[in-house]
Amino acid sequence: MESVASAPDILTASFLGKLFMALSLITEVFKLRGSIGVFRK
């Protein structure tokens, strides 16, 4: 029973981790775009 109860927690944890990584990558891309835009100006 314990493994069945912890399985969803592991899935949500990995999902949140992937979501956090995706958000950090997007923010890094926007930072690079912003810096490139500043250099172009």
Structural class: mainly alpha
- What is the mean pLDDT? 82
Distance between the termini: 61 Å
Number of helices: 1
Shape, principal axes of CA atoms = rod-shaped
Provide the helix percentage. Answer: over 70%
Order of helices and strands: H
How many domains?
1
The quaternary state of the protein chains shown equals single chain
Number of DSSP strand runs = 0
Which regions are unreliable across 5 or more consecutive residues at pLDDT < 50?
A: none
Radius of gyration: 18 Å
Biggest β-sheet description: none
What portion of the residues fall into strands of 2 or more residues?
under 5%
Explain the layout of strands and helices:
Elements: H1 2-40
Characterize the structure shown.
The chain is mainly alpha-helical and 41 residues long. It has one domain (1-41). It is 95% helix and 0% strand. The protein has one helix at 2-40. The model has no long low-confidence stretch (mean pLDDT 82).
In short:
The protein has 41 residues and is mostly helical. Helix content is 95%, strand content 0%.
Give descriptors for this structure.
single chain; 41 residues; 95% helix
